[in-house]
Amino acid sequence: MSEQKTVAVLGASRDRSKFGNKSVRAHASNGYAVYPINPKADEIEGHTAYKSLDDLPIESIDRVTVYLPPAVLIGELEAIGRKRPTEIFLNPGCESSEVLAKAKELDLPVIQACSIIDVGAHPANL
């Protein structure tokens, strides 16, 4: 049996109508160990929330899925890189030319797509 895949949801939300919450639920229901990142939450959907990626209790992560505006995300790219993710999903609305240029400079494995759809769920059904 393979090891459980891990995902950090950067911009996770306690608000069930927000994509940052739907992503937590979609990944969890598809077998991921979920690490919500939200500096103002202690728990999201039953998962311990962390203030930052650097606070995660694991050294590396399989996937980082991002729900942050570009102006905030740009400052998080180096922290994302430190976790050595296999893939980074920049969900619609969080990418910008500046973010993409910095991610390329850092050699980050960026995918511009909806990670909820990637795991086989649909945001409208969550």
Automatic annotation (TrEMBL):
The family database entries (SMART domains) matched by this protein are listed as: CoA_binding (SM00881)
The CoA-binding domain covers which part of the protein? Answer: 1-89
Q: Could you read off the lineage of the organism from its UniProt record?
A: Bacteria, Pseudomonadati, Planctomycetota, Planctomycetia, Planctomycetales
Domain of life (superkingdom): Bacteria
Report the Pfam families cross-referenced here: CoA_binding_2 (PF13380)
- Spell out the protein name for this chain: CoA-binding domain-containing protein
